Request: fold
Amino acid sequence: MWNMNKSSISRDWPSLWGLERNPFREAASEFIALASREMALRRLLAAIGDGEPVVSLRGEAGMGKSAILREASARLKGPSVHVLHARCPSELPTLVIALAEGLGIRTNGQADPFRALARGVKVRRGLGEHLVFLIDDAQHLAEEAWGPFDTIGQAGGVTVVRGLRDEGPRLVRDWSHSWRLPPLSYSESRDYLDSKLARAGCRSRVFGPEAIGRLHAWSEGTPRGLDRLATLTLRAAAERGETEAPATLIDDLATKEFELAG
Reply:
């Protein structure tokens, strides 16, 4: 049993599990090399290496698209590759201006910011660079808004990677390099939890097999869902004085979360 009052436990619960921090916070969503995520990353990097003009990485909210794009950005660092990583705004000109200025071209209120972007692309290609635009949350723009990027990529040397929240059949454009991130399998969910806990300094078992099964089932294999439920579970288990997270507690917490969401 923990010898602390409840308010202190709510604040300091990570240390009670031997953790240096909460490993499941959104800000701590680093890339974890699970089989399905490594496969998606390898396919993405291969398409960029082959000079594909457009690549689309799709998946439901919380599936880990952003983590894959960040890891791709880190692995693409090099003298012959120029990577710009941006979160997509709701207006196309805002995105185009950000990309142009990321290439060192001032738009200065130009009526057609695509001209500035095209100039920046031309300069960088002249320097022998391959340009990679990693655009997260690309679903914020309508499908037809992406057409002008095709023109920029026609001369080669540019790859636009879109991270898209998959909302079903609405995404109908036929891009051959388009992949959908699947949910994590049970074993991947286990490895995901274990890896995050280990990176935060945990050296003892926190979730048993049954608890991991409940976390996987309730989250439906979604990394963000695992993060949320694991945080709730460890905090609540610490308040109850548990030394291992009970599977039944996960059911109670998940049910309440669904009630609040409804």
